[in-house]
Amino acid sequence: MKPHVTRRGLLGLGVGAGGAVLLGACGDDGPNPIVGGGQNAQPASTAYTGPNVALTFWNGFTGGDGPVMKALVDRFNSENPNIKVTMNVYEWADYYQKVPAAVSTGNGPDLGIMHVEQVATNAARGVVLPLDDVAASLQLKEEDFSPPVWRAGVYNSKRYAIPLDVHPQGMFYNKAVLERAGLDPENPPKTNDDYLKALDALKGKGVQGHWATPFPFTGTHQFESLTWQFGGQLFDDQATKPLFAEGPGVQALTWLVDLVKNGYSPKNVAQDADLIALQNGKAAFNWNGIWTINTLRAVKGLNWGVTALPTIGTQPAAWAGSHNFVQFKQRATDQNKLQAGKVFINFISKQSVEWAKGGQVPARKEIREGAEFKGLKEQAAIGAQIDNLHFPPSVPGIPDAMVTIDTAVNEAILLRKEPGKALADAAAKASQILEQNRKKYGG
Amino acid sequence: MVAVKAAPGRGAGLTPYLFLAPYALLFVTFTLVPAGYGLWISLHDWDYLLPGKPFVGLDNYRALFSSSSPVFDFFWQSMQATGIFTVFSVPLLVVVPLGIALILNRSFRGRTAFRAVYFAPYVLGVAVIGVLWRFLLDPNLGAVNALLGAVGLPDATAWTTGLPWAWISLVGVTVWWTLGFNAVIYLAGLQDIPRELYDAARVDGAGRWAEFRQVTLPGLRPVLLFVVINTILASSNMFGQAYLITQGAPGVETRTAIMYIAEEGLRSYRMGSAAAMSYLLTLALLLISMITFRLFRTKD
């Protein structure tokens, strides 16, 4: 989320006023004309016995997760002398622009990681290969994972992604602040009533307990969690129309806006200020992604905890992202490389408890339910929400429609528009974008 | 006779072109051809990875002028944001650096140090200044509001999330960041004005103000034209500051044209539409540049 922008880069974009003009210059007709992925029919297996191969593996693990993945890659390399995997890391925002361009010029990596909501778009654009055979030969089934995350990797009835992890939202809390307000730091609120009572108690001590952030990380995530909690959905299953502006969505956004209106949150919370406030003892609660575990661990002397989101609506639910393995399309198919890549995916997937230590919930059920993962107290607390997670419909271009939600959440929490109006405006825009995408991707 | 007469002319005629050729080659390859290609893209529904890139004629342009299209509000909103930023930042970036250059052009102790100080922010990347100011300007936790509060001024100004504050922040940060560049250009221009002109003005009894108006400003005119045009173009291409400091908030109020074009083309992969927007922006900038040139010329 922190794109690297240099002045020269900006000048490049600016001169001639056309990023698109520049980018257009390096496009051609794509890697090959088969849309929706080419052939990847080699039966996969769990071992590779062919000649030595070198694989490139790109991802966006720029944070504390990078070294963890690097260590796993190193271990794979030493255990598989005939496969050499080289890992390259880019900022995610750069990565999603770089990878398709690299694939289209025949310089794409062999393997990569993608967020679940990006899979359908990249499948439709012919960037990634179908992985049904990987799933089949590794005998991976829906039951081995969590159904929503497993299903989210399917586009046009083909599987393009093997889930590595899920990273849900959890409720982080500052125990010292709770104690100061006379609340039990070992028993944070679980229901709407308890939550509002706690916020009242905190307010009595001059603490604004839940800073409502108007920005996507993690204001939009909180809105999405709440919409599902109130029984709503963001889109219908086929993403033919937005549903986030209906009753549950309005309830969800109103709840967040009321935090500001009732003085449980300051106005004008800026990016990351909510999390900083938790660390400074200016806030008691922060609903944030599981990656926050690493951030808070690094803060000396902070007494904090994390648990599942409280159930504000009628049912438990939480936002989550998910990292998935993908294989990229190449100009010339090399069966040895494809095979070796599958061995790699299987290896890392099986080691995902190591990966979880870096602040993730393993997608694989056997690992999630293993004693070792349960021993990771914080991760396991957030991981307990696994059955209550939701992912956007697996439809190409869905991220384009989802950004309209960011705008609505921003406008409402900054008190510039009523929640209902902000969501209705966004939904009108999202409908147009969905229709545009249907035309573009043929849906 | 004829051949002898023409020969020196032709011989000299080829040399300049040979010298120009390397640049011309680069210009054609990296500017002219991509620009032409961009025009071609703007006439299609263009995603470089999809095999079908249907020709749509002027549809991408038409959409920018049709209020029922999905891009209409967003595009004009972003053009308006760019306009607001340009209108408020350009005068400041033209005038303030001039004042600073005038002061730094006089001789006093520590002049070199001050020159370095004013230029220093310009060497920082936009990512650095963006993140730096995002934290300083944080409405609830930032140092700026804390300092204002400490001296008894309002301490809850929404510098990055409210209006007009977000614009004041973006313009202020940009002026702080880039004024050194314009100041250095002015300084070079000031040092090119012959000293004799000032001596002559003084002999004629001119005061400080008359000196500035009759000698300094006319002497700086070519530099001024460069500074004005360059600043207008730089301001209309503003991207990084808004991207990092306000993220376009509140709503999409501070999302600039370049930000929106980049989103449309590079994130939503609608490159035809983004190219059309780029061309419209280019056209607007051409027009403004031409008007500026004309204004400077009529003063002749």
Automatic annotation (TrEMBL), chain A:
Alphabetized UniProt keyword annotations: Sugar transport, Transport
Superkingdom classification of source: Bacteria
Listed Gene3D superfamilies: Periplasmic binding protein-like II
One Pfam family this sequence matches: SBP_bac_8
Keyword Transport carried by entry: yes
UniProt-listed PANTHER family: ARABINOSE-BINDING PROTEIN-RELATED, BLR3389 PROTEIN
Protein name listed in UniProt: Multiple sugar transport system substrate-binding protein
Organism lineage string: Bacteria, Bacillati, Actinomycetota, Actinomycetes, Micromonosporales
Automatic annotation (TrEMBL), chain B:
GO biological process: transmembrane transport
Cellular compartment(s): Cell membrane
One Pfam family hit: BPD_transp_1
Source organism of this protein record: Pseudosporangium ferrugineum
Domain ABC transmembrane type-1: 79-292
Membrane topology value: Multi-pass membrane protein
Keywords: Cell membrane, Membrane, Transmembrane, Transmembrane helix, Transport
Family from the record: Belongs to the binding-protein-dependent transport system permease family.
Nucleotide-binding is among the record's keywords: no
Protein's recorded name: Carbohydrate ABC transporter membrane protein 1 (CUT1 family)
